[in-house]
Design a protein that fits this description.
heterodimer, A: 394 residues, alpha/beta, Rossmann fold, 2 domains, four-stranded antiparallel sheet, 16 helices, 44% helix, globular, B: 259 residues, TIM Barrel, nine-stranded parallel sheet, 12 helices, 45% helix
Chain lengths: 394, 259
C-alpha cells in the first residue's frame, strides 16, 4: 500500500487533504518523465537558460598543496542563480505548468531555493510565493530583495524556531489550503513520495555529467565523490549515477555546527534517530519523546533536522558514508578555496571542501576526488566576515 | 460495538478537543471533567508536538505553551490515569505520527489502552500509511480514526469502508482554525460515506458557532470543535474550565436540537 520507500524510509505521512495532490503529481510525473517532448524542453532550459553542462574543473593548486589525490570541483556554482537548486526548480515548474498549475509556492532556508523558484516562476509566467523563516529573512536580506525583484511574494515565518523546518511546515500548511491551482516546489530530496524521487531525478544530471566528464579527462571513474548534505539534493544528484559503481566512495558531509557533542548541531546521521516528520520516515534530530530538535549550523541551507530518505537508506546499507564538519572547519575551507583556487564556495559546499582537505592527503596521487561545489559564496560573505569579527556595510 | 461508535448512538454527538498541558496538566484535568459534565460525548486529547503541520495558529500556540512548560507523553499518561477515575466519556489521543512512533508504537498503544483511552487520531497518517498503526490499535482494543476531506473524491468510499470508531470528515481545505465560511460540498461526502458504512461520521475543522454546529450536524452524526475551545483556554488560562464548559453546553445544545 505504502509508496516511495527506500528500505524502511520514505512513504507519504501527510494529511488526507494533500493525498490527492501528491497522487496527481505522481501520475503527471510518471507520464512526463519519459516523454521526449518534455525532456527536450527541459534539456533546452538546462543548456540555454541555466548554463549546463557545468564545468568539471581540475583544482590543480589545491591538489598540489594537499599533496594527495587529484581534486576536481563540479562547478554547480556556475549555474544561473548560483547553485544546483535551479536544476530541480526548472524540472518541477515545467512539470507544474504541464499540469495546468498557475501558482507555485516554496520554502527556503538561505534563500537559494527561493531565488531559483522566483526566477523560474518569472521565466514561465507563474504566480510565486516563498515561505522563509523570519530569522533567515534577516540573515539573508539580499536574497529576500532578489525574490521580490523577481516578482515573488516573500512570507516571513514566525512559528517554531523561524528557520528552514518551520518554512517547510508553513509551506505545507499553505498547500493544504490551496491545491487546485498551486504546486509546491519542494527544494530538496525530502517530504512525501513522490518528491524525493522527482527531486533526485532532476538533480541526477550532476552525476551524469561528472561521469561523462571524468571519463573524458581521466579515462576512469573517481575514487570518491563528496557533497554537503542538509536535506541532501545536491548530494544525491552527485551520487546517483555512481551508486552502482562500488569502487566509488560516496561521502556526504553534514553540518556539525559547534560539534556533534553539542546541542548546536544539524548533523542528522551523526545525532538523529529514526522518525516520521515532514511527510517521510527517515532520521531526524529529536528528543526522547519525538519532539523535533531545534538545530543549528552556520549554514542556513544545512540547518535542517532531517535528511532525505534515500540518504538514510544509503547509510543503512553502507553504500554511502556520512561525516560531520564543524562551523570552524567549513569557514576555514571557505577561506582556503577562495585563496587557493580563486573560487568562493557557498558555506554549504565548503563543508564538502573541508572534508576533501582531510581526505586528499590520505590518498595516493593517482587517485581522484570529485567535490560537488553546489553553490557560490557571495551570499555568505557578510556572515563569514561577521564570524571573523568584521562588520561589513554596503 | 466500540465505545466511540456507541457515543454517537444517542443522537448527534459533540466532540471536543483539548491540548494537554496547556497551560498545565492540572488545568487539562479540570477541563476534561467540566466539559464531560457539560455534555461532550467524546473528548480528543492532543499530545503536543513541536511542529504540528496540520494546525492553524491557535492550536500551534497551545502546543508551544504546553511544550515550553515541559509536558511529556509520560506526564499525559499519568494525568489520564487520574482523570479516568471520575470521567467515563470516550477519550481519544490526537497527536502526530512521530510522537507515537518515537515512544514505540506498541508501547504507546499498550499504555494508552491500559489507562482507558479509546482511540488514536494521527492527522499525518493517511489511508496509505495506516498499516503501521491500525493493526496495533486493534490489538489493544483502540480505534484508529480515519480522515476524509473535500479533496478525497473517489477515495471517500475506500476509506469509509475500513473506518473504525468514527470517521473524521474535514470540513474545508487548510489547517485547523476558526472559519466564518465552511465548504458547501460536505453533504455530498457524508452521503457517500453512508452508502458504504454505518460508522458514524463527524465533521471538524473551522466550526466555532452554534449555527455552524447545527448546520454541520444536520448532514452528519456529530461535530468536532478544537480551536474555539483552545482559544477559550488561551484566554482564561488556569481559570478556563467554567468558560469552556459553558461553551460546550451551548454547542451541545445546538447539535441536540437535531435529535
Amino acid at each position: 500500500m505504502s509508496k516511495g520507500r527506500f528500505g524502511v524510509h520514505g512513504g507519504q505521512y501527510i494529511p488526507e487533504t494533500l493525498m490527492t495532490a501528491v497522487i496527481e503529481l505522481e501520475q503527471a510525473y510518471n507520464h512526463y518523465k519519459d516523454d521526449p517532448q518534455f525532456n527536450a524542453e527541459l534539456t533546452e532550459l538546462f543548456n540555454n537558460y541555466a548554463g549546463r553542462p557545468s564545468l568539471l574543473y581540475f583544482a590543480e593548486n589545491m591538489t598540489k598543496r594537499l599533496g594527495g589525490a587529484k581534486i576536481y570541483l563540479k562547478r554547480e556554482d556556475l549555474n544561473h542563480t548560483g547553485a544546483h537548486k535551479i536544476n530541480n526548480v526548472l524540472g518541477q515548474v515545467l512539470l507544474a505548468k504541464k499540469m495546468g498549475k498557475t501558482r507555485v509556492i516554496a520554502e527556503t532556508g538561505a534563500g537559494q531555493h527561493g531565488v531559483a523558484t522566483a526566477t523560474v516562476a518569472a521565466l514561465m509566467g507563474m504566480e510565486c510565493e516563498i515561505f522563509m523563516g523570519e530569522e533567515d529573512t534577516k540573515r539573508q536580506a539580499l536574497n529576500v530583495y532578489k525574490m521580490r525583484l523577481l516578482g515573488a511574494k516573500v512570507n516571513p515565518v514566525t512559528s517554531g524556531t523561524a528557520t528552514l523546518k518551520d518554512a517547510v511546515s508553513e509551506t505545507m500548511r499553505e498547500w493544504v489550503g490551496r491545491i487546485a491551482d498551486t504546486h509546491y516546489v519542494l527544494g530538496s530530496v525530502m517530504g512525501p513520495h513522490p518528491f524525493p524521487t522527482i527531486v533526485r531525478d532532476f538533480q541526477a544530471v550532476i552525476s551524469k555529467e561528472i561521469k561523462e566528464q571524468i571519463l573524458q579527462k581521466e579515462g576512469r571513474l573517481p575514487d570518491a565523490v563528496l557533497a554537503c548534505v542538509g536535506g541532501g539534493s545536491n548530494a544525491i544528484g552527485a551520487f546517483y549515477h555512481f551508486i552502482g559503481d562500488s569502487s566509488v566512495r560516496l561521502i556526504g558531509c553534514e553540518a556539525a555546527g559547534r560539534g556533534v557533542e553539542s546541542f548546536e548541531t544539524a548533523a542528522t546521521i551523526a545525532t538523529g534517530k529514526l522518525g516520521i516528520f515532514h511527510g517521510m520516515k527517515s532520521y531526524f534530530c529529536q528528543d526522547e519523546y519525538g519532539q523535533i530538535a531545534p538545530v543549528y549550523s552556520i549554514s542556513a541551507g544545512l540547518d535542517y533536522p532531517g535528511i532525505g530518505p534515500e540518504h538514510a537508506h544509503l547509510h543503512d546499507i553502507g553504500r554511502a558514508e556520512y561525516v560531520a564538519i564543524t562551523d570552524d572547519e567549513a569557514v576555514e575551507a571557505f577561506e582556503y578555496l577562495s585563496r587557493t583556487e580563486g573560487v568562493i564556495p557557498a558555506i554549504e559546499s565548503a563543508h564538502a571542501v573541508a572534508y576533501a582537505m582531510k581526505l586528499a592527503p590520505t590518498m595516493a596521487k593517482d587517485q581522484i576526488i570529485v567535490v560537488n561545489l553546489s553553490g557560490r559564496g557571495d551570499k555568505d560573505c557578510a556572515a563569514i566576515a561577521r564570524y571573523r569579527g568584521e562588520e561589513l556595510s554596503e | 460495538m466500540s465505545r466511540l461508535k456507541e457515543a454517537f448512538s444517542g443522537g448527534k454527538a459533540f466532540v471536543a478537543f483539548l491540548t494537554c498541558g496547556d497551560p498545565d496538566l492540572e488545568t487539562t484535568e479540570r477541563l476534561i471533567q467540566s466539559i464531560a459534565e457539560a455534555g461532550a460525548d467524546v473528548i480528543e486529547l492532543g499530545i503536543p508536538f513541536s511542529d504540528p503541520t496540520a494546525e492553524g495558529p491557535i492550536i500551534q500556540a497551545a502546543n508551544l505553551r504546553a511544550l515550553s512548560n515541559g509536558v511529556t507523553t509520560d506526564d499525559i499518561f499519568q494525568m489520564v490515569r487520574r482523570v479516568r477515575k471520575t470521567v467515563s466519556v470516550p477519550l481519544v489521543f490526537m497527536t502526530y505520527a512521530n510522537v507515537v512512533f518515537s515512544y514505540g508504537t506498541e508501547r504507546f498503544l499498550k499504555t494508552a489502552s491500559e489507562i482507558g483511552m479509546d482511540g488514536l487520531i494521527l492527522p499525518d497518517v493517511p489511508f496509505e500509511e495506516k498499516e503501521e498503526f491500525e493493526p496495533v490499535c486493534k490489538q489493544y482494543g483502540m480505534d484508529f480514526i480515519s480522515f476524509v476531506s473535500p479533496t478525497s473524491h473517489d477515495r471517500v468510499k475506500q476509506i469509509a469502508k475500513e473506518a473504525e470508531g468514527f470517521l473524521y470528515c474535514v470540513s474545508s481545505l487548510g489547517v485547523t482554525g476558526v472559519r466564518s465560511e465552511l465548504s458547501s460540498g460536505i453533504g455530498e461526502i457524508t452521503a457517500l460515506v453512508r452508502e458504504v458504512t454505518d460508522t458514524p461520521v463527524a465533521i471538524g475543522f473551522g466550526i466555532s458557532t452554534p449555527e455552524q454546529a447545527e448546520k454541520m450536524a444536520a448532514i452528519s452524526d456529530g461535530v468536532i470543535v478544537g480551536s474555539a475551545i483552545v482559544r477559550i483556554v488561551g484566554q482564561h488560562g488556569r481559570g478556563a474550565a467554567p468558560h469552556a464548559a459553558e461553551y460546550v453546553r451551548q454547542m451541545k445544545e445546538a447539535v441536540r436540537r437535531l435529535g
